[in-house]
Amino acid sequence: MPSSVHTDPRSRGRDLLRAVAEGTAGAVGDEFLRCLVRHVAVAFDAKFAFVAEASDETGEHVRIISGWYDDARIEPFEYDTQGKPCALVVEHAVVAIPEALTKRFPAARPAIELGLESYLAVCLRAADGTHLGHMGVMDAGPLEVRQDDVAALRIFASRAAAELERRRQAEALRTSRSRVIDAADAERRRVGRDLHDGPQQRLAAVANFVRLAQRKLENGDQADEILRLACDELGEAQAELRHLARGLHPVALSERGLRSALESLTAGSDVPVTLDVSAGELPDEIELATYFLVSESLTNARKYAGADAVQVRVESVDEALLVEVVDDGAGGADPDAGTGLRGLADRVDALEGRLEVESPPGAGTRVRARLPLPAD
């Protein structure tokens, strides 16, 4: 910290704290951020105050989501941080440059264009330490940076960080919900196509066979072969309907429990499956998530990975259910490329669990989910 910082308890820090607190009282969301930058600018008597959100943890690109410049609100804008003082905020909790800003950072074109020569910024981090961005003030002249001012600014930076984290969580929730809706729509379309191309066509064929057999019998002819074909089509239609019903909701799960449902699922697999289930009684939503995770992983191993063998393990570990499916296929599975793994991620996330997918090319795929179990 520069030598201009002092720790006089009678300094303006408490006044700054009080002024900003009163100015942002009752404000939430975007309104809070707008009130915050305005009152921070006034309290510091600074030309510019802002809250910048980083596009990722590196902080290499940021967007000013709320700014107050020269007594007016400014529209959001974004820029790369390389060569600018805000690049330092990723590694430092506080960055203070009281004067000669553009001399030290000639690449800081926005500061040069706005005539700003001093800088004070505080790093914004999420509860887990993730870098979210920074909050700062800038002025045309020297900026006297006092220790109590920094302490007050950090208090409101914590509130700004909480708001950014809330926005990100809300956006993640909207994205997740959108994916769930899209996945449900896609599943309905798939079921509709499968019904039309499978059982519906077979039942139509059965109806034609029956009518043809009826005419033959009316004419005194034999209809054994036609009735045999009708029975074959009915059997195929029944099998396809069972497969469709299992994809919508496994009847075996509600009737016989998770172990039996997984045994039925793996028994019909084209790929040899080793099944190890050592979990006791589980909540319905945990069982359903486990079933679909195993089902989707087996489908991927068979259809896309060309696997020769699959291992499935389900066990209770440290107040959580561990579900792991490992195949020896081609690997290279991308969780973001299709709706299947994304749907599993959303289902696991809804249960406050964690899903991991390891799939190096040529080395098989490991899908692992950890689902927290009720304490009772």
What does this protein look like?
The protein is an alpha+beta fold and 376 residues long. It is built from ten helices and twelve strands. Strands 1, 2, 3, 4, 5, 6 and 7 form a seven-stranded antiparallel β-sheet that branches. Strands 8-9-10-12-11 form a five-stranded mixed β-sheet, with helices on one face. A hairpin with a 5-residue loop joins strand 6 and strand 7. Helix 2 (29-44) packs antiparallel against helix 5, helix 5 (147-218) crosses helix 10 and helix 9 packs antiparallel against helix 10 (339-350). The longest helix has 72 residues, at 147-218. The radius of gyration is 31 Å and the shape is elongated.
What is the number of beta strands? Answer: 12
What sequence of helices (H) and strands (E) makes up the elements? HHEEEEEHHEEHHHHEHEEHEE
Poorly predicted regions: 1-11
Beta-strand portion reads: 15-25%
Q: How are the elements arranged and paired?
A:
Layout: H1 13-24, H2 29-44, E1 48-54, E2 61-69, E3 72-74, E4 77-80, E5 94-97, H3 101-104, H4 109-114, E6 118-125, E7 131-139, H5 147-218, H6 224-248, H7 251-256, H8 258-267, E8 273-277, H9 284-305, E9 310-317, E10 320-327, H10 339-350, E11 354-358, E12 365-372
Parallel strand pairs: 8-9
Antiparallel strand pairs: 1-2, 1-7, 2-3, 2-4, 5-6, 6-7, 9-10, 10-12, 11-12
